[in-house]
Amino acid sequence: MRHAVRSSRLVSLCLLILSPLFAATAHAGSERQLVAAINDYRAHPQRCDRRPAQRLAPLALKSNLLLPNGYRYGGGMREALKSSGYSAVAVRSIRIVGAQDAEEAFDRLQSDYCGALLDATYADIGISRTRSEWQVVLAQPVLDNRVADNRSVGKALLAEVNAARARPRMCGRQRFAATRPLSWNAALGAAAQGHSKAMAYGNYFAHRDPDGDLPADRARAAGYRGRQIGENIAAGQSSPGKAMAGWLASPGHCANLMNPMFTQVGAGFASEARSDEGVYWTMLFGAP
What is the pLDDT, as a whole number, of residue 34? Predict the structure, then answer.
């Protein structure tokens, strides 16, 4: 009899330990179920607000796309998300109260917020649930989700700058002929990446860093021994293509890109959600 009592207590203790984990797992499953329903709706949309809807890419579920505890609706959501490590260009939060499961939550969203669910602006989604209250956060990140590591970004920027140099163009009022392509230089790449990181983590945007160093100083410190240095920087653009487009639209930056004196280049980027701009780009040009 005593043995039966001890076994009963052991089972009860195990259930008490596991029940919070079970509840958390159940909630996580319902949140994923809601994301799946939303993405299926985006893939096979119906009319919304009497307008035909186009098929959209699925939203990516992001664990850091959640408004922090204590956030009051109506405040600065982008600033609030920075504390969670998410940097957004655009963000919208929707609260559903009284939905007992994912199916009911989706029905409410489709009925009352179909325009938000079918907005091509948004690429990411975050979902949290407390009993029957759901919080859905839709966002467009500062840095495009397709941007990979620094090596692939460097290749993309090299291809972009050489495509630009292959054609004659006007940089403001200055005409440039098509010129030879640039070759990648590892030292310039390291210096460019280092400056992007320094701007992102130091939360500043300038050619002169807080220590007073200029582009030529950073290039020499990285081991580059060329005689001429030029630098383009940008902040807030979501992809290499958009950074390049911004530089080409600016006469001075465009002139650096097209300058036939330069024969080598290195580039890099860095992102930091808590910085003012979210992502920072650097391109260094050199002539040996």
Answer: 95
